[in-house]
Amino acid sequence: MKTPPFVGWRRSSTPATPQNLSHSTSSSTYSSSTSTSSRRSAARSVADALVACFAPPEPEKSSSYVSNDYSNASSSSSQKRRSTNRSIYGSSNTSTGTRESGNVKFSMAEILKATRNFSPSLKVGQGGFGTVYKAVLEDGTIVAVKRAKKIMYDNHLGVEFQSEVQTLERIEHLNLVKFYGYLEHEDERILVVEYVPNGTLREHLDCKNGNILDFASRLDVAIDVAHAVTYLHMYTDHPIIHRDIKSSNILLTENLRAKVADFGFARLAADTESGATHVSTQVKGTAGYLDPEYLQTYQLTDKSDVYSFGVLLVELVTGRRPIEPKRELKERLTARWAMKKFSNGEAILALDPRIVRCPANNFAMEKIFELSLQCLAPHRKSRPPMRQCAEILWSIRKDYKELLTSNI
Ligand SMILES: Nc1ncnc2c1ncn2[C@@H]1O[C@H](COP(=O)(O)OP(=O)(O)OP(=O)(O)O)[C@@H](O)[C@H]1O
């Protein structure tokens, strides 16, 4: 197998060897033309055995007041910043977000200045973790400030926050949201990360900005996400399981390239060599994306992310959410419905109606569904590793582009 070139970046201090995979179309050993029919029939034979994924309800999103009294907010906390070989404001390459990521503690004063005292006008989102603000640091870097809800901290965020920080500070990849720093001060838990300006993948699939995400862009997004998750899974010392791959955690750049966000649930994978896996005390993740085997065994492996990625692929092709409660019963679980269509040779009926029907789109749709089916295998052993998903997607994109040009 040809090793793809590295175009992403990673911290030189971290001895990672994951494949920071290229955005460019790369060749791979996957042969879509020769093995298609056998793969498809094998894939279809397990289609009916697809186990639907049921998950516990999402945690309640309660809003909670977090004290705004920062009279003691330490400017001294900036002195507590861990010493790095660069200054917090000295490492910026430009004033608009190419600043290096790293392990940096922020002071409350800096956060308040950057967010103009958490001005509601700068609020860009609200999630299970808390509120997200668009903010500008003193050096001009535009960042997203994620302010945790107090209730999260009271319950379990102490662990979650540390988990997120420890994970974020160790990873760096073109398709992962960059980590700039954090603040822990009294009741406040704040993360400062790269601001990604173009909304979430879910918003694009919902056409919130009025534009339909075309098929080529959806394929690129799938590849970007596959690269990011491959990087996490292949992280040398401690492979990382994301645990919450979903369309609302995929942020898009102005060029519609994807960045995977939200490592709040991330866990370092256990010793994969020995086959040991992380045993959770609590199921985490999002309804509709959860690996059925994880739900049954509480054993978390990298293949749980592969399952969620399979759900995401179906979402990209159909445009539908993983769970569509308002639809008739047989269409409510999108993955099951779409895989059934695929196995019956009617995949085209599951293609997002807003996507143009043409030979290239129809071909790529079939191939992506075929991959989804493998990712959604009820047993994790039958699912491909994430790196293989990326390779298959490159191959699909290569053939897709050839078909597009040959049909002009
Ligand atoms: N880095 C970022 N750049 C730009 N916008 C962001 C960024 N991170 C989050 N947002 C916006 O804030 C919203 C909430 O993000 P957040 O990560 O808090 O959600 P969440 O906690 O992952 O939600 P959930 O609990 O459903 O997973 C996102 O949907 C997005 O619109």
How would you describe what is shown here?
- The longest helix has 21 residues.
- The N terminus is likely disordered.
- Helices cover 33% and strands 11% of the residues.
- It has a five-stranded antiparallel sheet.
- It folds into two domains: 246 residues, Transferase(Phosphotransferase) domain 1 (Transferase(Phosphotransferase), domain 1); 91 residues, 2-Layer Sandwich (Phosphorylase Kinase, domain 1).
- By secondary structure, it is α+β, with helices and mostly antiparallel strands.
- The structure holds adenosine-5'-triphosphate.
- The site of adenosine-5'-triphosphate has 20 residues, from strand 1, strand 3 and strand 5.
- InterPro entries: Kinase-like_dom_sf, Prot_kinase_dom, Protein_kinase_ATP_BS, Ser/Thr_kinase_AS.
- Its EC number is 2.7.11.1.
- It catalyses: L-seryl-[protein] + ATP = O-phospho-L-seryl-[protein] + ADP + H(+); L-threonyl-[protein] + ATP = O-phospho-L-threonyl-[protein] + ADP + H(+).
